Amino acid sequence: MPRKPDHVGHRKRLRERFLNAGADALADYGLLELVLFLAQPRADMKPVAKALIARFGSFAAVISAEPPRLTEVKGVGRAGVIALKSVQAAALKFMRDEVIDRPILESWDKVLAYCRASMGYSATEQFRILFLNSKNALIADEVQQMGTVDHTPVYPREVVKRALELGASAIVMVHNHPSGDPTPSQADIDMTREVAEAAKKLRITLHDHVIIARNAHASFKSLMLL
User: Fold this and answer.
1) Residue 200: pLDDT above 90?
2) From its phi and psi, is residue 126 left (phi > 0), alpha (psi between -120 and 50) or beta?
3) Fewest beta carbons less than 10 Å away: which of 26, 109, 133, 193?
4) Which of 84, 162, 179 is nearest to 128 (CA)?
5) For 83-105, how does the pLDDT look when each residue is reduced to its tens digit (9 = 90+)?
């Protein structure tokens, strides 16, 4: 009988450890291996998983990376990208379902966790709006603008127009700082005040503007800037 490759036994042991003890029993690269097994059922994915961690730093950073950057790692092809990004999509859907149709001011920590997961690892700026009804329940979550590494154009009239289209009574603005520093810039402050003034005229409340970074966030309301 031909001897089976060493990684076959390793794969079986890894799966059993996951089933018996859960994800916390695995290192980040081990959890990545499980995901990559779906893409390449017969290959040794441990070196690929370790290379991904070395490149991006953590499991969360790997699944949040853009597909072109993922394929720069040897051994990650189209099937691997699909496997990794499907895990991210499932995680974001779960987190979004935890806050949709619920008063977000009562589940603020979950809202921040969702925003950090969805945009905290992005290499470019995104401007997102959370639209709320009269009970402050989340009725829509939309990315309005995509920008460069340090700039996203925001037009107050477009923000208010979209709120009116959705019948929103209040909004929360969220954008990310890829630099990792969530400190508001003067441009951020000026834009926020313009949106708040435009929204107030139409009886739409701007509850907060949150800047998300990978490991931190800044709230305009907490900073007394709103």
Assistant:
1) yes
2) beta
3) 109
4) 162
5) 999 999 999 999 988 888 788 87
Q: How confident is the model at residue 174, as a pLDDT?
A: 94
Question: Which region holds residue 22: left if phi is over 0, alpha if psi is between -120 and 50, else beta?
Answer: left
Where do the domains of the chain lie, and which CATH numbers do they carry? Answer: 6-93 (no CATH), 101-219 (3.40.140.10)
* φ, ψ at 130 (rounded to 5°): -100, 120
Q: Phi first, then psi: give them for residue 162, nearest 5 degrees.
A: -70, -35
Task: State which amino acid sits at residue 152.
Answer: T
The answer to whether 104 and 138 have CB atoms below 8 angstroms apart is: yes
User: Please, are residues 77 and 39 in contact by the beta-carbon 8 Å criterion?
Assistant: yes
- CB neighbour list of residue 86: distance below 8 Å, 6 or more residues apart: none
Side-chain half-sphere exposure of 22, counting CA atoms within 13 A: 1
170-176 and 205-212: which strand pairing? parallel
Residues near 25 by beta carbon (within 8 Å), at least 6 away in sequence? 17, 18
The secondary structure element, H or E, covering residue 219 is strand 217-219
C-alpha to C-alpha distance for 120 and 115, rounded to whole angstroms: 7
Q: Which amino acid is at 217?
A: H
Whole-prediction pTM: 0.79
Contact call for residues 124 and 91 (beta carbons, < 8 A): no
Site of tokens 């290379």? 51
Which H, E and C letters describe 178-196, residue by residue? Answer: CCCCCCCCHHHHHHHHHHH
